[in-house]
Amino acid sequence: MALINIQSAIKRVRQIVRGLEPTQGVEILTYKRNRGITVIKVDEETLSVQERGYEEHTYLVHIDELTRLLKTLAKREFPRSRKVRVYRLDSPYCLGIKRKQL
Questions:
Q1: Are the CB atoms for 6 and 81 separated by under 8 Å?
Q2: Residue 59 in this model has a pLDDT that exceeds 70
Q3: N or C, which end of the chain has less CB nearby within 10 Å?
Q4: Is residue 81's pLDDT more than 90?
Q5: What angle do CA 50, 53, 59 make, to 5 degrees?
Q6: What whole-number distance in Å separates Cα of residue 30 and Cα of residue 91?
Q7: Quick count: other Cβ atoms within 10 Å of Cβ 2?
Q8: In what order do the strands lie in the sheet with 4-5?
Q9: Does position 76 have pLDDT exceeding 50, yes or no?
Q10: DSSP secondary structure string, 85-99?
C-alpha cells in the first residue's frame, strides 16, 4: 500500500479491524519498514497488538481501546514520521514475510 498520513492510518486501521475475521490482521510500518505495529484479531472483541521497534511489547486489548493504544504507540514508534504504510495480513503467519527494504 502507498504511504498515508499517520492520523488517517489510525482511523483506517480501526475500520479495517472491525471487518476482519479472527486471526487476520493489519500491519503499520514506517517508510523504511524497520519499525512497526501489528494488530491481530484474536476473537470478535479482543485484539493482540504487537509493537516492534524502539520497544518490544505485546498487548491484549478490547476492540474499543484500540484507538487510544494506537495513538500512544504511534508517538513512541513513529516520532518523526508523518506518513506510514498499512498492510492487511491474511493470517498471523504473514508476519515473518520480508518486505522490500529501502
A1: yes
A2: yes
A3: C
A4: no
A5: 20
A6: 21
A7: 6
A8: 4-5, 83-89, 25-29, 36-41, 46-52, 57-62
A9: yes
A10: EEEEESSGGGGGPPP
pTM of the model: 0.86
Q: Hey, what domains does the chain have and what are their CATH numbers?
A: 4-90 (3.90.70.20)
CB 6 within 8 A of CB 78: yes
Q: Do 52 and 38 contact (CB within 8 A), yes or no?
A: yes
3-state secondary structure of 49: strand
> Rounded to a whole number, what is the largest CA-CA distance in the chain?
36
45: DSSP letter: S
pLDDT tens per residue across span 16-37: 999 999 889 999 999 888 899 9
pLDDT of residue 95: 61
Tell me the β-bridge partners of 85: 29
pLDDT at 72: 94
